Amino acid sequence: MRKVLLATYLGSAAALAVGSASANDELIKMSQNPKDWVMPAGDYANTRYSKLNQINAQNVGKLQVAWTFSTGVLRGHEGGPLIIGNVMYVHTPFPNKVYALDLSNENKIIWKYEPKQDPNVIPVMCCDTVNRGLSYGDGKIILHQADTNLVALDAKTGQVAWSATNGNPAKGETGTSAALVVKDKVLVGISGGEFGVQCHVTAYDLKSGKQVWRAYSEGPDDQIKLDPAKTTSLGKPVGPDSSLKTWQGDQWKIGGGCTWGWISYDPALNMVYYGSGNPSTWNPKQRPGDNKWSMTIFARDADTGMAKWVYQMTPHDEWDYDGVNEMILTDQQINGQPRKLLTHFDRNGLAYTLDRENGELLVAEKYDPKVNWTSGVDMNKSSPTYGRPKVLDAASTDKAGEDVNVKGICPAALGTKDEQPAAYSPDTQLFYVPTNHVCMDYEPFKVSYTAGQPYVGATLSMYPPQGESHMGNFIAWDGKTGKIVWSNKEQFSVWSGALATAGGVVFYGTLEGYLKAVDAKSGKELYKFKTPSGIIGNVTTYENNGKQYVAVLSGVGGWAGIGLAAGLTDPTAGLGAVGGYAALSNYTALGGTLTVFSLPN
């Protein structure tokens, strides 16, 4: 896959010659080296695949702990470290410390960055004080702090090269996502959908930190960076005021659509891809209409931010099914034809495969059979509802109305998958997906907007599907056919990012704290080790001094672990997660640790 990306990139080098692309050239070259891990997802395509094969299906059972590192911070540790040469960069949740560790000298701390942030940002962070990781470019480590400051640190010294303010926590805007360096820019989203923020993705100049462009998720065409005639949705121009027409009055100004997930990039097409989150409020009665372009996959020109195509997955969301999960870019054959694909596992329980050049919808299927809010997506291109999910009345919180508790909706608000990223192996042509197997009761109520105050308007409770006790599955998925190839049950949601390797092994972590290795073809469990705390981090691999290592952050928290992380006990607290995951405290406790594994000498 990386060879394909590199070849297509080099083939269109002339098209990329406009402006400074040196950081991009450097990053593409660096991401070809499997010894390092230089981007949040390992590569621009978000595949989370490594060519390293020293650890393989035959010997992975012999893995042992090589070394550990305490981050000194509690609460949820999402994301994973970067590895560049002999240096590993580790990040933490709030206060967002960054450590540079010398891998060639007993993992000694080279430098530490600890920002001074106002602790008042903590209660504004919806679902724990998480941070999804660091990025690298032009000799700088990029950190998106909780207080929304985007900071560029000198990779050698940790000194601040520049800082840019990306939002205002007083309005409910916070920073939890990993930025992505693309050419001479740093792209980053914003969190705050539960506070009625009008959300956006912003590009900053990598050298100076100056804002280059900003594209909102909803509002007037110029703010969203849509061209009514040239931007398409399912092959047709979106037309003028495509967002404004789907909101009542000025509701779009507090419309949500946040962008705290992952960004991917196709250098050959020079396009970036990401998803937008839920519309505000969670009470659908208060915001009639499709609420475009919340819950949408955006494909944008990396240089200008202009949207080439958009696809809204959950129009008029009634369940908080954010569309922010990663977009995985692959080149595969469908019906005998080579296609440039984008695959996305949405919170709403549907897995989508689209043509990433033009946004054509190719596959949309349930990746958990228990999904019951929809009977599926209308795939008839001549139908007036083409591309829309067919909502079942029994699960409609809008039809039931305010102050009515709609029971047994699957999936729950945290989705069949949340931000925990899937992996793709070009060897098997399968996706490996950490999933939640959780349903909910959902009761909307009227809520008024006050800047900086929660703007939710729904009470939730969560539990496993009826007649079942497990709350998670780890699955292998065929994105060409939309079918589950194998599925492993887990007691709790799998809230860790997966890693696929050329050794035929797939790694993931569990909420109880196990790092697990499974056979990529069969799903057979080959290894497990219990780390000091629950794992919501993403598994990473690298090579140092001729030896392959596997690294993962443990530190329970995030939405699923918010009860433990924040000491909450009311079952409906944490937007319904506290009751659903109450038993987690019987298996793990708080703690931030990096655990690194290798084969014995």
TrEMBL record:
Alphabetic keyword roster: Calcium, Disulfide bond, Metal-binding, Oxidoreductase, PQQ, Signal
Domain of life: Bacteria
Spans traversing the lipid bilayer: none
Enzyme Commission number(s) from the entry: 1.1.2.-
Annotated segments matching region Disordered: 224-243
CDD domains membership: PQQ_MDH
SMART domains: PQQ
Binding-site positions, Ca(2+): E194, N278, D320
Cofactor-binding details, from the entry: Binds 1 Ca(2+) ion per subunit.
Name by which UniProt lists this protein: Methanol dehydrogenase
Lineage: Bacteria, Pseudomonadati, Pseudomonadota, Alphaproteobacteria, Hyphomicrobiales
